[in-house]
Design a protein that fits this description.
It comes from Nocardia rhizosphaerihabitans. With 330 residues, this protein is α+β, with helices and mostly antiparallel strands. It has one domain: Hotdog Thioesterase (Thiol Ester Dehydrase, Chain A, Roll), CATH 3.10.129. It is 22% helix and 32% strand. It has 7 helices and 13 strands. Strands 1, 2, 3, 4, 5, 6, 7, 8, 9, 10, 11, 12 and 13 form a 13-stranded antiparallel sheet that branches. Strand 4 and strand 5 form a beta hairpin. Helix 1 packs antiparallel against helix 5. It starts with a strand and ends with a strand.
């Protein structure tokens, strides 16, 4: 099945209140995710979604792909390892999104199977919004060392709901754009001026706290019912110390940290993250310390690469995390 591409037959309609709900879940307070007037002022015509919002519908499409190519996986034993996101245009309230999901690679690794999916998200006009590449390690119920305990905790009807996310084989229709996206009018115009950024500049550090309630809320908002993120016994069953924060929740927190410094989410054109250490959220909660450094700049394209560091209890939770941003002229 490697190299096959499928299109989810149904579409996802982006709701205004869902944008706000998701912004709350990832603690992103930028006004363009909350205020229609701010979205207009920034040149977007209304609300735009936080940078990781796409993961809500993409998650269902990817799980349907899982079932299509390798059914029977224990949900509690699926772990994300890498995430690369290329941004072509912001997701707006009212957008109607379609999803093409392809299995890019498959191999044995880390005591299980490593899958890499490519998800291409297009809007109602056929314009590419996002291209995402996501890697997961999974263990099927047949190869898992224990009974799929987590499946007993997942909300009723979840797998039935997944079965309705139909995937239709999609014939090759030419290459998708893989270059840096064209910045739309207004996108990034409120960001830091390119001339104000230099190699070695430090992004002011920030501490972000997570509680068990935050994990439960994110699981509900994002539609990810994996119980290792909110149930102590499920986490212990797969040898985790405590429930762990969703990988995309930590990416969303980091994205909000970055865009609060940049001033405009539309300036971000690529994010790449490798996950190394989990964020354990006990009854006492957890705190993530974010910091960043400008690693390089390109005067020709007015882009900069920012390296982001995230630590929890002294452990780096990202082995590598970078964002490429395009900044306006002064």
């Amino acid at each position: 099945m490697v190299g096959c591409s499928y299109r989810a037959e149904d579409v996802y309609v982006v709701g205004r209140e869902k944008i706000r709900e998701f912004a709350r879940a990832v603690q992103d307070t930028h006004p363009v995710h909350w205020s229609e007037s701010a979205g207009v002022e920034y040149g977007y015509g209304g609300l735009i979604a936080p940078l990781t919002f796409f993961s809500i519908p993409a998650f269902r499409a990817q799980l349907a792909m899982f079932d299509a190519v390798a059914g029977g996986y224990d949900l509690s034993q699926i772990m994300q390892t890498d995430q690369v996101i290329n941004y072509y245009k912001p997701i707006r309230s009212g957008d109607v999104l379609s999803f093409d999901v392809g299995l890019e690679s498959f191999r044995q690794a880390f005591g299980g199977e490593l899958f890499e999916f490519k998800t291409v998200i297009t809007d109602q006009h056929g314009n590419t919004s996002i291209i995402s590449r996501t890697s997961f390690v999974g263990r099927s119920a047949a190869t898992a060392s224990a009974t799929p305990f987590g499946d007993k905790l997942v909300m009723q009807g979840f797998r039935d709901m997944r079965s309705h996310t139909d995937l239709a084989l999609r014939a090759p229709d030419g290459p998708r754009p893989e270059t840096l996206p064209r910045v739309e009018p207004g996108a990034g115009s409120h960001a830091l001026a390119f001339e104000s950024v230099a190699v070695g500049d430090q992004v002011p550090p920030r501490l972000i706290s997570l509680t068990p309630g935050d994990l439960v809320n994110y699981a509900g908002v994002a539609g990810d019912p994996n119980p290792i993120h909110w149930h102590h016994e499920a986490a212990h069953a797969v040898n985790l110390e405590a429930p762990v924060a969703h990988g995309m929740l930590t990416v969303g927190l980091g994205a909000g940290y970055l865009t609060s410094w940049l001033g405009d989410p539309g300036a971000v054109i690529e994010c790449a993250v490798r996950f190394t250490s989990p964020v354990y959220v006990t009854s006492a909660g957890a705190t993530i310390e974010f910091s960043g450094t400008v690693k390089s700049i390109d005067p020709h394209s007015r882009t900069a690469v920012v390296a982001i560091t995230a630590k929890c209890e002294g452990r780096r939770i990202f082995g590598r995390a970078t964002a490429t941003v395009r900044l306006p002229a002064a």
